Structure formats: structure tokens, C-alpha cells
Amino acid sequence: MLTHLPIDIRRTQYKPIGKQLLIDYIRDTETEGGILIPETNSWYADVLAVADDCTEVKVNDRVLMSVYRGQNITFEDGTYTIVDEKDALGVVE
Q1: How far apart are the first and last CA of the chain?
Q2: Does residue 52 belong to any structural domain of this protein?
Q3: Digit-coded pLDDT (tens) for 1-44
């Protein structure tokens, strides 16, 4: 049984459809003093790919996401998440 897609997502052209984003969650936050703060109620994520219909978010944006959203997909090089653009709470500048 296939447990992951044999694709290195960072070297492949992947395009979500509809108004979806492919994101890579940043699970821990590091303080200036080097302390790791584990997962909280909202997570930051890096946007790896966006669908053509997305208007608010673009590739390489860092977004604040609602927790427990999206569908996890395991590729050869890691686990990523596909979410609806509306689940992004904001872009971090």
C-alpha cells in the first residue's frame, strides 16, 4: 500500500485547484532567547503553491492559519497540508 506520494514537492510544479493553498506548517516558534514554544491555537505556515483563483495569498507568503484545517498529504520529502484560502487568518509581513 502506498503511504506517501513519491514526489519531492519542493522540486515539482504542483498547482492546487479551486481556491486552495499548499502550505507547510511551522509547528514550533522560537523566541529571541532560543526557547521553542510548541503548537498553539493558531499556526504559522509557509505557502508553497496557490490555485489560480486565490486572490489574497501568494507563493512564499507566511500566513497565520486556523488550527485543524485542511488535508495532510505526505510526499517523499515531508508532510504538507492543502487548505482553503478562506482558512488563512492573515498574511504575516
Answers
A1: 42
A2: yes
A3: 444 445 555 556 778 889 999 998 886 666 777 776 666 555 88
